Every structure is written in structure tokens, then in C-alpha cells.
Amino acid sequence: MVIKRPRRAGRIHTVVRLTAMVVLFVLLQELLGKFARADHTYGNLRWYFDVGAAMHERGFFNVWTPYPPVFHALLYLLTAFQTGIAGFINFWKILNLAGIASIAYVVFRLLEMEGRERALTAAFGFALVSATWASRLTIGLYMDQFDYLPMVLMLLSLYFLVKNRVALSGALCGAGFMTKMFPGVLLLVALFSLEMKRKIVYVAAFAAVCAAILAPYLFRSTEPLVSWYNFTASRDGWETVWHYPTVKFPPIPNPKLLVEPFRSEARPYAWLGWLTALSISAYMVWRWKRAGPAGASAARQALCLVLLLLIFSKGVSSYFVFWVFPLLFLCYGPLAAFVLCCAFLLVANIEFFVDTHWASIWIRHGMFVGLLVAQIVTQHRRARELQGAPEKKNLVSA
After folding, report:
1. How confident is the model at residue 2 (pLDDT cuts 50, 70, 90)?
2. Rounded-to-10 torsion of CA 353, 358, 361, 366
3. CB 234 within 8 A of CB 267
């Protein structure tokens, strides 16, 4: 009986955490229902469908999109099997559910080594917050962006990096980078944590996948890539503190205009790109001097790097907060991570009102900075503990 008490106590704590999550989830839906205007229209998918139709009408290489190459190819493939918007939306719902389930599963597998109950609780927490239905910011089943795909690729790359399967991790990182750039943070984690031989394997796998994805464009037509780059680089700021006090939202190009090459020499907020590179470099050098191999710390490094991208980006669409949700469950206790996700959703939903727009932007930015500082402090303390451990062991041995 004495031996079973810790396990029983652990199960009680798990039940308490799960119950607290469910209660908070219900309260979140009630609160959002009081002021948020839930969006279940899949408006962005209608734009996707029109772009896909233009690609089939004018030719794959004759239409560019505002996103990296994988999205370009994925949209062409998905619209090839759907002749109507209704079928396209229904299929997208299935993809959303598959994305959520995949992320929850990878979160479980990454945390399983720290205890099955924590892993299950974290996976449940992510799936539960993704079931939100009362949000103006679409999430879960109602998500009308494709970000679940790069999130899955980033987490799979993280999982295989932790498992020392560096070639597979590098390949998935390359695929994620070609899908929406931010999964590329795992490349930096690998470069600053792996020994030289594994580092070479990782970079080679990353480069091979990127080259394979880019090859059709390089041999047939680079116009979709050039137009995508010019459009991305020339975009003005949106939904960040960097363009305060002017309210700005991202431009949505007319699908009919995507058949014409995009040219622009404008490079607004170029200084933010340099500031991002400088801050990321400083953080990685700091980490390199203090911590050991990629493993349990890899998720914390990835979280910090994604936060730096969000802090210094010239544009942060409201749904970008979802990038950090799985990482929060990997770096914090399940209940704490769930509370943070709920807080991000609440803050995001007040952005859509004139009177509270800037309050939402500033609070969200403050949360990014606060999480980054908290992670740096935690990592500093853990590094000192790791450095002190051998000394204590030597003293005991002596």
C-alpha cells in the first residue's frame, strides 16, 4: 500500500488538472460568447480556392502566391480534387482535425519520457483549447489558415532531433521551412547543439529537401519564387507595435492579380530583419556557452527563437500565436500552458474592436517578451545547476 501511494497521488493530481482545464475551457467559451463574434465562415479558404482555380486555369508556374513553395504546390494539389467550395471546406476540416491530432500526439511522445500522465494531460490540454468554438480568431476545426501543417513539421523535426535521428529531423525541418519559414528555427537549435558529424548530416538533409522542393521552379520558372519574395519583402507592417499608432492589417492580393509577376523595390522595416538576426544570434551564442546537447532543452530553445521572430517581425497576424501553443505545453506544466493559451485567445479576440485594438497588440507583445524573459531566466538557472552538479559529485567522491 505504501508503494502505491505516489502513483495514486499522481493520478489524483492528474484528475485535478484535467478537471481544472475543462472548467477553464467552459469559462473561456462563456466569456468569449459575451463579446467575441465567432467566425465560422472559412473566409480565407474561399480566397485559397480562387487562387487554386487560377492555378489550374492559367498553369502551375503562371500564378504566384504570398506563401513559400510548399503552400503553392499544396494548394494546386488540393484544388485538383475539389470542384466546389463546399467540398473544399469540408476536406479542409478533416485536415484541421488531422493536424490537431498529430500535434497532440507528438506533444505526448515528446513528454512521455517525463511521465505518461503529464504527457497525456499536456496532449489533452492542447486538443481541448483547440476545440474552442466561440472565438473570432479561428482555431481548431474552424481554422482557415494552413499553419497546422508547418506546426506539425516543426514538432516532428523537434521529436526526431531529441531522438538523435538527425537526418530525418533535418529533412522535416527543411520541409517545414519551405512551408512557412518559422520551423527553420530547429536548424539553429541543431547547429548550436549537435557535434560536428551530426551537424553536417542535419544540414545536408535540410539542404537536400529544400533543393528538391525548389528544383521544379529553378528548372521551369522562378517567377512564383521571385514574386513571392518581392511581395513578402515589400509588405508594410501589420498588427504589431512597430507601426503604432496607425492601424494596419495585411494586404490580401486579388487572385486575378496573382497571374502577373510582382515587382517592388520597397523594403519597409528592413531594420527589423537585422534586429531579428542580431537578437537570434545573441541568444544562440548565449545558449551555446551555457547548455549541453539538444534534448530536453531543444523545446525551450525553439520557443525562445519563435518568440524572437514574433517580437521583431514587421507583421504578426493574430493566428501566429498558435505557433507557440504546442511549445508552451512542452516547456511548462500542462495547466500553466493551458492558462497561457486561454490568455492568448482572450487577448487576440479583443483585437477586432476599435477601442481595444491597440490594447490587444501591446498586451500580446508584452506576453511574448515576458515569456522570453522567463525562459531565459529559467535556462540560466538550469545551466548553473548543470554546471554545479559535477562539482558537487566531485566533492562527494573526495
Report:
1. very low
2. -140
3. yes
**What is the sign of the dihedral through the CA atoms of 255, 258, 264 and 267?**
positive
Q: State the angle between helix axes of 196-220 and 166-180 in degrees (0 to 180), rounded to the nearest 10.
A: 40
Q: Which residues contact 343 (CB under 8 A, 6 or more apart)?
A: 367
Residue in the block written with cell 497571374: 259
CB contact set of 89 (below 8 Å; sequence gap of 6+): 42, 45
* 25, 129 Cβ separation under 8 angstroms: yes
Contact 340, 22 (CB under 8 A): no
Distance of CA 345 to the CA centre of its chain: 15
Question: Could you give the count of Cα atoms lying within 13 Å of 218 in the half-sphere of its Cβ?
Answer: 6
Q: Please, what is the Cα angle at 180 between 143 and 233, to 5 degrees?
A: 115
Cell of 155: 514538432
Cα–Cα distance list, 106 to 159, 218, 239 (Å) = 7, 34, 30
| pLDDT at site 341 | 98
- Please give the Cα distance from 66 to 251 (Å, whole number): 10
Question: Whole-angstrom Cα distance, residue 184 to residue 176?
Answer: 7
Task: Give rounded-to-5 percent helix, strand, coil for the chain.
Answer: 75, 0, 20
Q: Which residue has the cell 500552458?
A: 337
Burial class (CB in 10 A: 0-12, 13-18, 19+), 324: buried
Q: Report the distance separating Cα 155 and Cα 197, nearest Å.
A: 23
Q: For the whole model, what pTM was predicted?
A: 0.93
| Residues 6 or more apart whose Cβ sits within 8 Å of residue 132 | 25, 28, 29, 32, 139, 140, 345
**pLDDT greater than 70 at residue 393:** no
